[in-house]
Amino acid sequence: MDAQMKKGILEMCLLHELSESDRYGYELMQKMKQYFPEVNESSFYVILRRLHKEGYTDIYYGASSDGPRRKYYHITEEGQAYLAKAISDWRTIKSIVRSLGIP
């Protein structure tokens, strides 16, 4: 799959997961690895950092247990709007492709 296309789809999937509930980075990465096994760990974290930098997520730290404190990601209102636009664009693309006769 084209890298740019994959990046956009992965961003949408990560934000969708965060719209369901706050998650910590490793938890998100493990879930997405089931669907995107060829994407390496560092790529997930690069996307998460960019989504935070662009204001689509907030970060907070959970209570410390035996290990290091976990960094949790929370989708912001801007992130919700960005996700809604990404889903709308995705649906439009799927419709165009189907209308061309591509299953």
Give the structure's gist in a few sentences:
By secondary structure, the chain is mostly helical.
What does this protein look like?
The protein is mainly alpha-helical. 63% of the residues lie in helices and 12% in strands. It has helices at residues 3-20, 25-35, 41-53, 77-99, and strands at residues 23-24, 57-61, 71-75.
Helix-strand layout with pairing:
Blueprint: H1 3-20, E1 23-24, H2 25-35, H3 41-53, E2 57-61, E3 71-75, H4 77-99
Antiparallel strand pairs: 1-3, 2-3
Summarize this structure as a short list of keywords or feature phrases.
103 residues; mainly alpha
Low-confidence stretches: none
Mean of residue pLDDT?
A: 91
Profile the largest sheet: 3 strands, antiparallel
Overall radius of gyration: 15 Å
Largest sheet, order of strands side by side? 1-3-2
Order of helices and strands, N to C?
HEHHEEH
Helix share, percent: 55-70%
Report strand %. Answer: 5-15%
Total strands? 3
Which outline best applies?
Answer: globular
Number of DSSP helical runs: 4
Secondary-structure-based class equals mainly alpha
First CA to last CA: what distance?
17 Å
